UniProtKB/TrEMBL annotation:
Protein name, entry field: 2-methylene-furan-3-one reductase-like
Pfam families: ADH_N, ADH_zinc_N_2
Coiled-coil zones: none
Database matches in InterPro entries: ADH-like_N (IPR013154), AOR-like (IPR044626), ER (IPR020843), GroES-like_sf (IPR011032), NAD(P)-bd_dom_sf (IPR036291), Quin_OxRdtase/zeta-crystal_CS (IPR002364)
Domain Enoyl reductase (ER): 100-395
Family: Belongs to the zinc-containing alcohol dehydrogenase family. Quinone oxidoreductase subfamily.
Highest taxon of source: Eukaryota
One of the record's GO molecular function terms: oxidoreductase activity, acting on the CH-CH group of donors, NAD or NADP as acceptor
Alphabetic keyword roster: NAD, Oxidoreductase
PROSITE patterns documented for this protein: QOR_ZETA_CRYSTAL
Amino acid sequence: MSSCAALSSITSQVRTFPSLSSTKNNCTSPTTLSFKFSLSFRESGKKITPTSSSVQRRQLSTRPLGVFAKSQAASPTSTESAKVTPIPSEMKAWVYGEYGGVDVLKFDSNVAVPEVKEDQVLIKVVAAALNPVDAKRRQGKFKATDSPLPTVPGYDVAGVVVKVGGQVKGFKVGDEVYGDINEKALEDPKQFGSLAEYTAVEEKLLALKPKNLDFVQAAGLPLAIETAYEGLERTGFSSGKSILVLNGSGGVGSLVIQVAKQVFGASRVVATSSTRNLELLKSLGADLAIDYTKENFEDLPEKFDVVYDAIGQSDRAVKAVKEGGSVVVLTGTVTPPGFRFVVTSEGAVLRKLNPYLESGKVKAVVDPKGPFPFDQVVEAFSYLETNRAAGKVVVHPIP
């Protein structure tokens, strides 16, 4: 599995946020004031428009893998910026109005473009990536803390700023940015996600897109690389320590390998995958790649300072950790000393990691079956949910 699958079993504290249609008079940072507004949609014919209302909260291929480390500026960058046009009142988006399988996803060409609050920017979406949390949210596994339906799904985004709120200082119209648009994955995630022509995002959740990456590569990074970084940081990982990464070819695992080695200075990185992805692990910097179809990692004579379980094998993972070590668990049950966490989206983390991305020390990994065009979002989700993707599943181009 790739990023954030762990979130499915965590109960988060419910927060409320202002409506996406709120005006300057009630706009403020969610870190300073709690609002009792929720966003709902009113459907009139085919047109979906946002309205604010006070509501009672509910109870709780055989192609080469897409590994990129380009030294030159990617060609789509300047051409996409040049395509910025006047902002329409309606946009094309994928929407679901009930929880369920991929069949609840519907294409709608008459969704209102979200209004921009004072601390937000409006992004013309160029590419978006899918995550397991998107699928689990659509299936209703987080309904107790979800925002009201209907929902435009999507967490990861890469695109161009077309409008800025009055309090925004770090970005301007025309900037190429990327980020995870939801600060907390389970606490009222946005109803206007990234699988749309436009999305509104708080300035603090974004960073400038790495200059050497195109929008497809950048879109696949935010949630996964932030999960990789925060998990390592929580273990106190540091230079000279060793790590075992389970599911090293997944969205998060492929970045844990690189971040552990290039950013934190790991002395030894071992990772697991199926036979077909062993070379990918080595190309990312794994000192030893283990074929989990042929070997049991817990039988290795060596033990590790940290085991990063991105597949859901906590009971086995704890057998491979040194005494006093840490086990990060992203999905499934947690066996002590394993722990689970809810990733927090922060533009500051992306800015910290940008130099590693721009130097090529850390690479974006895009699944070779993609990118999927915007009219194949259902197919993209179906593929994601097979749990066989190597790296990230990305949607591009978006009209």
